[in-house]
Design brief:
By secondary structure, this protein is of the alpha+beta class. It has a domain at about 25-85: N-terminal domain of TfIIb (Single Sheet). About 20% of the residues lie in helices and about 15% in strands. It contains one helix and four strands, in the order E-E-E-E-H. It has a four-stranded antiparallel beta sheet, with helices on one face.
């Protein structure tokens, strides 16, 4: 058996952590990076707000909560509110008469 070749890999060291986003796109006004998230870990509260349209959302936070978590919760809460609003709306009144079939002109004369 021969000697092992030296690996060209770099030695394992501390990995560089890329910071997570803290500014996001607003669901309501669609402006990029207009939504900011602030987390107060002592109080256990996270606040999200849009600088453009002033939409706000507040949620509980713990020591593991990140801004992307609050943004995801906001999206879920907005979807749930939209589904609830659409299910509680009264259906539009419709006529009891069936719709008339469109008339088709024939080429026969």
């Amino acid at each position: 058996m021969g000697k092992r070749k030296k690996s060209s890999r770099k030695p394992a060291g501390p990995r560089r952590k890329d910071p997570l986003e803290t500014n996001f796109t607003c669901l309501f006004c669609h402006h990029d990076k207009s939504v900011s998230v602030r987390i107060d870990r002592k109080e256990g509260v996270a606040q999200l707000f849009c600088k453009i349209c002033d939409q706000r959302y507040q949620s509980k936070a713990n020591h593991l909560t990140e801004p992307i978590d609050i943004y995801s919760e906001w999206i879920d809460a907005a979807d749930a509110a939209e589904r609830e609003a659409s299910s509680t709306r009264r259906p539009v009144a419709s006529s009891s008469r069936p719709a008339r079939a469109p008339s088709v002109a024939s080429d026969e004369d």
